[in-house]
Design a protein that fits this description.
This protein is an alpha+beta fold. It has a domain of 39 residues. Helix content is 37%, strand content 18%. It contains 15 helices and 16 strands.
Amino acid sequence: MATSKVFVVDGARTPFLRAQGKLGPFSAADLAVAAGRPVLARMPFAPSVIDEVIVGCVIPAPDEANIARIISLRLGCGKQVPAFTVQRNCASGLQAIASASERIALGHSDIVLAGGTEAMSRAPVQWNAAMVTWLAGVMRARTGFARLKAMAGIRPAYLKPVFTLLLGLSDPLVKLSMGQTAEVLTHRFLITREQQDTYAQQSHERLAAAFDDGHMQGEIATLYDARGEHYCEDTGLRRNSTLEKLAKLRPAFDRDYGSVTAGNSSQVTDGAAMLMLASETAVKRHNLPVMGEVVGHAWAGVDPRQMGLGPVHAVAKLLQKHGVAMSDLAHMELNEAFAAQVLACQAAWASRDYARDELDMKEPLGSIDMERLNPEGGAVACGHPVGASGARLVLHMLYALRRKGGGTGVATLCRSCKSSTTS
């Protein structure tokens, strides 16, 4: 079957807003609409011309089921435009773009709005099983006396809440949180606390420089909340961060022997990123400006205890498939879930033993030049709204490649990998 080329023609994201221990000002749908609106405004066609809307989201609100459809309708695409939501944990935004690419490549669609969104600050807090059982008993009671008797059975322990965000950031099979898996990587690859803090400091410095140099203009759409407040910069960025301040933070996941801290980890964040993808036919028909071509994508599974090594395997599969060497890449966006995880991926790519034993390769890919890896910072500084991060990586990579004059780039994070080129 002949396939169509797939191009990204535009995109935007919101500023990423660090959670402040309370409900954020925007729902996940609000954020995606804010990111998608300027993209649609720049198109030479009406929103109703779009064939599909595909959005990644991990924890949509109870009243935002199939959030992609809600976003599509709120953006004015019209009732006739279908939409669906995808969920692949942190890779949800990349999955949305991959799904859109496949739909276009196979000729099912010509124009697709795709991306990801997350309001982690609004992750639901639920009752525990004992409380649910008690409530069910109260509701089943047929008489007033029976209901009073059932109500009298409540116990203080029933009021203990279940924080779905904490559950979602833990693996139910190996019983480790994501931070604990990062600690596993520090031991495997002998990554020190100093190395992690140095990388984290670099992330903040690089993101600050990107804003100051105007590199984020066009990529970020200003947010306005109901109180008249506006946001034009990622609020997780710590311009006053120093290695001395980072060194004072206690380990967050292994209090006694760990080295992964809140300072060298990504942040709980709200945000969205949306991209417009189009076929070659649609680009010509509407005379659309091309940001880059989506060449392919690859996925890989790893031991959940070392989930941060997913990019090592996915990138290896992708580069081998397309005959590209690591040295050929002009840019890589590797999500900074943890500084330790990024450093571990670099170590694994450079390791001859890892290449032989884990990747079934005779020679290692080699680590990527640090000047081409997240040169404008990453999730340690800007945050990691899980459903949106994959889309942000692709979007920022395309903007960065355009500033560089073109080239091949890879956007990757735990569980996924995508390659794009721009010229």
